[in-house]
Write a structure and sequence with these properties.
The protein is mainly α. The chain is built from 2 helices and no strands. InterPro entries: Flp_Fap (IPR007047).
Length: 57
């Protein structure tokens, strides 16, 4: 019975899960930001390429 009481009061597992959830949330936010930035860079490079190929520098 003491084992179960000690197990219930132990919060180390809960803390590890919380840190894992925070890390996952940060990863999702970073991936979203990088995808947005990648799309903007792609658009910019396409505009530059089009302008340079037309000779309108």
């Amino acid at each position: 019975m003491k084992f179960f009481n000690k197990l219930i009061r132990d919060e180390q597992g809960a803390t590890a899960i919380e840190y894992g959830l925070i890390a996952a949330l940060i990863a999702v936010a970073a991936i979203t930001a990088m995808q947005s930035l990648g799309n903007e860079l792609s658009t910019t490079f396409n505009k530059v390429s089009t302008t340079m190929s037309k000779g309108n520098v």
